[in-house]
Specification:
Radius of gyration: 21 Å
Strand order of the largest sheet: 4-3-5-8-15-14-13-10-11
Mean pLDDT: 90
Shape: globular
Helix content: 10-25%
Largest sheet: 9 strands, mixed
Order of helices and strands: EEEHEHEEEHEHEEEEEEEHH
Strand content: 25-35%
């Protein structure tokens, strides 16, 4: 006897209903970080993971209404917007010095974009069982809101110029960092204040050439992960260049971070 199966409404009858694809909202890009390199860099992380990823540069996308459609919120951008614009095709104000009509342009000043209702929406989203992946300079947003900082886990201090440093796992038993080998990357070594239990720290960065950053020395916390309510949070500080995003061990770790946030690990 032939076991016949038919399609009804796009689902194979006689089989378990197909699981809906999970969705990621990625808020990326700012004055100092071109969203194009971030999108390309993260594309390698998400490749083959059976996820629908929506990229946006619109800070208003962080809202309770928008987050309802997603299971993971990712953010790689800082806390500043420039309502009056800024000069030049690049990020640097020195461009203005060579303009003949320099006086026609006022000094651009940044403003904070995060509203407290946005921070509250993120907190509710994670507490309900979803994931939040905070990358690189996103720790800067925590300077805008105690609520956002409580979810994200820390806040931005600063960084030296691009230079090589080593990244290693300080917790090798966590699913994200199991088997992670130390690696060298050429990136901004971000220094951050970390607010949570030290047991949740996953990564440490160190300039093994002995170069320091002010009073903060050669070492910095480079990543952490913890449960928050029913959901999960991961922060990793690397990501100013596509070279850094695609560093072999780092790329593997980012994929495992996404899997852990979605509770596949």
């Amino acid at each position: 006897m032939v076991n016949r199966r038919t399609f009804i409404g796009g689902v194979l009858a006689g089989c378990a209903a197909a699981q809906p694809r999970r969705r990621v909202l990625a808020l990326i890009g700012d004055r100092y970080h071109n969203p194009d390199y971030i999108r390309i860099g993260l594309g390698k992380v998400f490749e083959g993971m059976n996820l629908d990823v929506d990229y946006t540069i619109d800070v208003e996308a962080l809202s309770a209404a928008k987050l309802k459609s997603y299971q993971l919120f990712l953010c790689l951008r800082d806390g500043m917007i420039w309502p009056d614009g800024y000069l030049g095709p690049d990020a640097y104000t020195a461009y203005a010095a060579g303009l003949e009509n320099r006086t026609d342009f006022p000094e651009a000043k940044p403003a904070q974009w995060l509203k407290e209702e946005q921070a509250a929406a993120l907190k509710e989203f994670v507490m309900a069982g979803n994931g939040f992946y905070s990358l690189h300079n996103n720790s800067h947003v925590s300077l805008s809101s105690k609520t956002y900082r409580d979810v994200q886990g820390g806040a931005y201090i600063g960084h030296p110029p691009l230079r090589p440093f080593q990244v290693r796992a300080v917790n090798t038993t966590h699913p994200i960092t199991q088997g992670l080998k130390p690696f060298i990357t050429n990136d901004e070594q971000h220094y951050v204040d970390y607010d949570k239990d030290p047991k949740h720290i996953l990564l440490e960065a160190e300039n093994i050439d002995g170069l320091t950053f002010g009073k903060y020395g050669t070492k910095s916390i480079a990543g952490w992960a913890y449960d928050y309510g029913k959901g999960r949070v991961v922060f990793t500080s690397i990501g100013h260049t596509i070279h850094a995003l695609w560093a072999g061990e780092h790329s593997k770790m980012q994929r495992r971070a996404v899997q852990w946030l979605l509770k596949d690990l």
